[in-house]
């Protein structure tokens, strides 16, 4: 990705030296599920998406319900199971990663530009999310979280949380290398922010209350796949700027494959439990990422109804 020299976002909060906000924790299990889902109406506009969502699920949601249910981030939820290896800790690497920080800030800026344009085309205003860099653990409006849970988005404070050591994990443990694999991680979380702004996430959190775990997981998969599709939409516009290099999108596709529920479960426990899937299989994640990328249309990101 030809990112150097491009605009860097000011919306980065570097909390890496905070070492986790004091350790006491807000009590919450740092593990967020992922919410949101989206729905795209026929015309491909966010406005239609909202209309459809409202028509389908509207019954005013209580923002407080969102607070409890942060976003599931990029990885399947099993608290901590995913990472017992290179997890955060290494505070020594923190401030050193300036180039990586610049990369993150640049990708974030690219998402700001793209989503601002898409929202504007629908007469809406995009509100930039913040991206918090942390090391090891962090406190968010969604509770206390450990880097082991992977990057996540908290709808309660409109922030994406990222411990950049996850990128090493992505490369070494998950076998997903490449800058654009990392960009995809960020774009996926920003996709959840878009779902939050458009009301989809709130509806999702509301809908899953009282649901059985299995049903909630199924709904979660739809939300996650939509975030992947939105990441693809972003990649589509990024490609139009001429800053993608050969192999970039493929590295994102590979990342989507490597973090699919089935692939991760096979790798970690040797077998799969489909009822527990909450992010989608490798094939599903690749399919939706590619779908968004191909057309750049939100209307192609309707994961909330029909087969996925
Ligand atoms: Zn997610």
Protein model, in words:
- The protein is α/β, with parallel strands linked by helices and 308 residues long.
- It is built from 10 helices and 6 strands.
- The protein has helices at residues 46-57, 63-68, 98-121, 165-172, 179-197, 200-207, 213-240, 248-258, 261-269, 282-295; strands at 12-14, 130-133, 137-140, 143-146, 152-154, 159-162.
- The strands form 2 sheets. A 4-stranded mixed beta sheet has the order 1-2-6-5, with helices on one face. It has a two-stranded antiparallel ribbon with strand order 3-4.
- β5 and β6 form a beta hairpin.
- α3 crosses α5, α5 packs across α8 (248-258) and α7 packs parallel to α10.
- The protein is globular and about 45 Å long.
- The two termini are 30 Å apart.
- 53% of the residues are buried.
- Bound molecules: zinc ion (ZN).
User: What is the tally of beta strands?
Assistant: 6
Structural class: alpha/beta
Give me the Rg, rounded.
17 Å
Number of helical regions: 10
Strand content: 5-15%
> What is the arithmetic mean of pLDDT?
82
Taking the alpha carbons of the first and last residues, their distance comes to: 30 Å
Q: What is the 3D shape?
A: globular
Q: Give, in order, the helices and strands.
A: EHHHEEEEEHHHHHHH
List cofactors, ions and other ligands: zinc ion
Helical residue percent band: 40-55%
Which stretches are poorly predicted, pLDDT < 50 over at least 5 residues? 21-70, 77-94
Biggest pleated sheet: 4 strands, mixed
Q: Biggest sheet: strands side by side, in what order?
A: 1-2-6-5
């Amino acid at each position: 990705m030809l990112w150097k020299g491009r605009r860097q976002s000011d919306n980065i909060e570097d909390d890496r030296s905070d070492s986790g906000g004091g350790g006491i924790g807000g009590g919450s299990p740092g593990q967020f599920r992922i919410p949101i889902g989206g729905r795209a109406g026929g015309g491909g506009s966010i406005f239609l998406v909202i209309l459809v969502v409202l028509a389908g699920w509207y019954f005013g949601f209580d923002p407080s319900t969102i607070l409890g249910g942060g976003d599931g981030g990029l990885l399947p939820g099993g608290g901590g199971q995913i990472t017992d290896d290179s997890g955060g800790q290494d505070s020594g690497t923190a401030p050193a990663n300036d180039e990586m920080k610049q990369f993150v800030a640049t990708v974030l800026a690219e998402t700001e530009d793209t989503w601002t344009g898409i929202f504007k085309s629908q007469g809406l205003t995009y509100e930039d999310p913040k991206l918090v860099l942390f090391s090891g653990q962090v406190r968010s409006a969604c509770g206390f979280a450990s880097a082991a849970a992977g990057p996540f988005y908290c709808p309660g404070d409109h922030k994406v949380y990222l411990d950049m050591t996850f990128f090493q994990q992505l490369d070494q443990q998950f076998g997903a290398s490449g800058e654009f694999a990392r960009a995809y991680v960020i774009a996926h979380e920003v996709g959840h922010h878009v779902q939050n702004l458009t009301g989809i996430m709130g509806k999702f959190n509301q809908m899953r209350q009282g649901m059985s775990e299995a049903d909630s997981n199924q709904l979660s998969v739809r939300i996650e796949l939509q975030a992947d599709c939105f990441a693809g939409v972003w990649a589509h516009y990024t490609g139009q700027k001429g800053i993608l290099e050969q192999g970039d999108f493929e590295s994102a596709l590979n990342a989507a494959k490597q973090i699919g529920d089935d692939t991760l479960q096979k790798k970690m426990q040797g077998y799969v439990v489909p009822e527990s899937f909450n992010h989608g299989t490798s094939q599903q994640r690749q399919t939706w990422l590619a779908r968004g990328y191909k057309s750049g249309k939100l209307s192609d990101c309707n994961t909330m109804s029909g087969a996925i």
